Amino acid sequence: MQLRVFGRTGLQLSVLGFGCGAVGGLMVRGDPVDQERTIARAIAAGVNYFDTAVQYGDGESERNLGRVLQRLKPANAVVGTKVRLQPDAFGRVAEAVATSLEGSLARLGLEQVDIFHLHNPITVSGGGSTLSVQQALGDVVPAFERLRQQGKIRFLGITAVGDTAALREVIDSRAFDSAQVVYNMLNPSAAEALPQSYPAQDYGRLFDHTAAAGTGVVGIRVLAGGALSGSQARHPIASPPPEPIGSAMSYDADVLRARRLMPLVDEGFATSLTEAATRFALAHPAIGTILVGIATPQQFEDALAAAEKGPLPRAALERLATLRQAFSGEAR
To answer: What is the pTM of this model?
Structure first.
């Protein structure tokens, strides 16, 4: 398993991380035997980054990950979790962040997490469940730094969803060491300019900003919540189709566009759309590690096999760009 240096942290993360989220569902609703067997397989294959959050099954993902890691005791596991602040806690951020982390540490069976991510969207002026740039930098960062000084977290992170301008400002501040960035075949705008009138949120070459700031990048929504399988079917333990992040306004629209990328498979660049999507994400040097939601041990094996094939070749990326041009002008 290839390792990549993760921004300015000095960490070396496996290019394929282990996503413990609710979309795939293995670590939330899966069989405990499958959970342990799959994580053991991941560790044996060289995977060293495990990503979870309180929101994944109301703590179930953290409990299950903690149970398995306590049993397996891997020597080099890097664990990231997250805090999502509720609007009624915006006036007491430091207390709410500390309370959330204490709960996460207890469920994980750890004294320290390696990366602690803010899970709220960040917008210019805030509102609803989103945090403003000022709240993120003025309230959350000091709370996170206090926990770092106490030895309870090593690195600070954000989930880079919300307003593009706000995300750029927060990343440019260099306050956060890690950013989880939406990047997939349907929306590559974190890396490149989108065609005119393209039906997706424009992340405005966010990778230019993470690179300048020395921020490590965790690639998220690599499969667009499962849409880049090209199938509307969901595994029984997977979540319902997720809310759109950065792509179409409906899951079905993402699936239909994904199917229009099938020439990548038909022309021999990959054996499946999911393989193509996984290898696409790995092709960008800004990516430190990617997360692929999994419901079954076999889905992990598929992700591993794709990662081991390496990034898509340039010819595939050029073909993909041509196919995506056809999306311009369509309704999001």
So the answer is: 0.96
Q: How confident is the model at residue 240 (pLDDT cuts 50, 70, 90)?
A: confident
Structural domains of the chain, count: 1
C-beta separation of 3 from 12 below 8 A: yes
* CB-neighbour burial class of residue 53 (10 A; exposed 0-12, middle 13-18, buried 19+): buried
The token pair that represents 148 in the structure block: 């770092």
Q: How many CA atoms lie within 13 A of 103 on its CB side?
A: 16
- Could you give the angle at which helices 93-108 and 60-72 cross, rounded to 10 degrees? 40
Residue 260 lies in a domain: yes
Residue 233 belongs to some domain of the structure: yes
Residue 269 has pLDDT above 90, yes or no: yes
In a domain, 88, yes or no: yes
The residues that bridge with 158 in the sheet, in sequence order, are 118, 179
Distance CA 171, CA 215 (A): 7
> To which H or E segment does residue 255 belong?
helix 251-259
Mean pLDDT of the chain: 96
pLDDT of residue 108: 98
Q: Contact at 8 Å (CB) between 55 and 85?
A: no
The boundaries of the domain holding residue 76 are 3-325
- What's the CATH number where 26 sits? 3.20.20.100
Contact 291, 21 (CB under 8 A): yes
